[in-house]
Amino acid sequence: MRICLIGCGYVGSVTGVCLADLGHEIMIVDTDASKVAQLNSGKTPIYEPELEELLQKNHKRISATTDTHTAVLNSDITFICVGTPSNPDGSINLDFVLSASHDVGKALRDKSGFHLVIVKSTVLPGTTAGPVKDVLEQASGKKAFVDFGLASNPEFLREGSAVGDFLKPDRIIIGVADLRSKQVLEELYADFTCPKLFSTIPVAEMIKYVSNAFLATKISFANEIGNICKKQGIDTEEVFKGVGMDHRINPAFFRSGIGFGGSCFPKDVRALIARAQELGMDPKILRSVTEVNEEQPLKLITLLEKHVPDPRGKKIGVLGLAFKPDTDDIRDSRAIPIVEKLLQKGATVLAYDPMAMGNFKKIFPTVNYASSAKDILAADAVLIATEWRDFEELDYSGKIVIDGRRVENARKGSVYEGVCW
Ligand code: UGA
User: Fold this and answer.
1) pLDDT tens across 132-181, in order?
2) Which atom belonging to ligand 1 lies closest to the Cα atom of 157?
3) Is the pTM of this model over 0.85?
4) pLDDT digits (tens, 9 = 90+) for 297-326
5) Whose CA is nearest to atom 27 of ligand 1?
6) Contacts of range 375-378, beta carbons closer than 8 Å, 24 or more positions apart
7) CB 156 less than 6 A from any atom of ligand 1
8) Ligand 1: centre distance to CA 262 (Å)
9) Would you say the CB of residue 123 lies under 6 angstroms from ligand 1?
10) Is there an atom of ligand 1 within 6 Å of 120 CB?
């Protein structure tokens, strides 16, 4: 198929490149001309393992442009993959989605054959068949589900393993309201052997939020239990190993630590809370998930103060700034509140991350950055905020180590405190 994707962030780049690898003709559209040029020169605008190799391997089938009109006219389907950032009240900002819909709609006005528009951006129930449909219809002068197709197809990619997640998904969720759109999507995903769930459009949109909210809930639950375990001298990881053996529970996403970050869980839980409140409800569990997650990173500071009672003037090393290993992404990284708190307390922060220091410098330009993980060990105490594999190789002997992510070798420190163990 000829496929157009609007937005070359994580979702657009990974989806486009993987679909090209499956043999489709791909056109990626972005308003940022430098990212478009990067893609056309065989470089991915984001860091994701395996992606650049796959882009170069399939370069003949992938082109990027800033011109939505031409891309839509020359394709059969369009995926909207732009970002949906948080508004200050937690609700999501649809500006990018609606502006992309407007441009696609304008192109559809000039297009004679059937075209399917699919929303892959994370949007709350009612968005695709509501504002997105309205904007598409207005700009095109055509009717959705009749003159052109419209569907929802949320993504479940994890940063750092997005290529594998796309090519071997647990399931594919497709929200449709008309037969033609359903048939096109059946054909597109025909070679995938995983379960495929066809639902209404709002159900598909809700599945995305509920999946992320449930995983975030598992993490906050594991952290709350981890805090209780820590006080009793019980190893919470051993506890969850046993708990996860129940097939009704499952062991995944029970790693306790300093909480969840990234561009999805925090934002999606906030958006679901905002939606519930709009509906006049008080989502108590979701609010607690966020509350536990806000408090959890600061537990590292409390544990630090047990051993370094006054961090003022002390050199405190922070190992790991990315929101998780294998990415340079620091959005909502748990290292952010930790570094903020250390600075507030007058500590001198020495930070290191194998990939994310460039991004971290943009928000913390005055922090000292080390050129290697080893250099961090010269600090008066070391906090571990991301579990990069390299951190297992360090020699922690003689150091004060406060571990937020369970780096086993760090237990060799002369003082070792795990946040939940
Ligand atoms: C998450 C979901 O896992 C994907 O399925 C989803 O598609 C994506 O959001 C999205 O909505 O786009 P991602 O944010 O890339 O993916 O990263 P995760 O691997 O889920 O980790 C999120 C955060 O949770 C990280 O800070 C990680 O350290 C933390 N985490 C994860 C834990 O603290 N404990 C765990 O057991 C697992």
Assistant:
1) 999 999 999 999 999 999 999 999 999 999 999 999 999 999 999 999 99
2) 7
3) yes
4) 999 999 999 999 999 999 999 999 999 999
5) 260
6) 375/350, 376/317, 376/318, 376/319, 376/350, 376/351, 376/352, 377/317, 378/315, 378/317, 378/350
7) yes
8) 7
9) no
10) no
